[in-house]
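Deliverable D2.4 — example input (structure tokens):
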């Protein structure tokens, strides 16, 4: 019984601490920031970040889309364009369309991939 009371007291204290924490604002990478990072010539760090970020967006799309419930909205022509071609086209798209500059990069990149002209 004493152990149960100790555990309950600890949980109450912990839950009180987590509730007292202010809600943190999460900074989301903007399209302009991603375009600036992906522009060539890029440093090895920028190139690595750009490839990792854009690959993660596409991989998340593949992993979370249920093939029986949601039709694919990104179609890749075969043979598929190189990663560098796709990133260069995205940078060009991001520089030309200033309406997307401050929007979250992940959503804009998915929209870019879904556009008929981006991947064939």
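Example output (designed residues):
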């Amino acid at each position: 019984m004493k152990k149960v009371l100790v555990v309950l007291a600890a949980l109450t204290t912990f839950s009180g601490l987590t509730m007292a924490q202010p809600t943190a604002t999460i900074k989301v990478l903007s399209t302009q920031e991603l375009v600036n990072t992906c522009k060539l010539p890029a440093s090895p760090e920028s190139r690595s970040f750009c490839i990792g970020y854009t690959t993660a967006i596409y991989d998340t799309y593949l992993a979370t889309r249920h093939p029986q419930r949601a039709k694919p909205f990104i179609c890749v022509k075969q043979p598929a364009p190189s990663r560098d071609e796709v990133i260069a086209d995205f940078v060009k798209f991001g520089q030309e369309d200033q309406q997307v500059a401050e929007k979250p990069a992940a959503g804009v990149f998915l929209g870019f991939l879904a556009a008929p002209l981006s991947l064939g």
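Residues 44-64 form the longest helix (21 residues).
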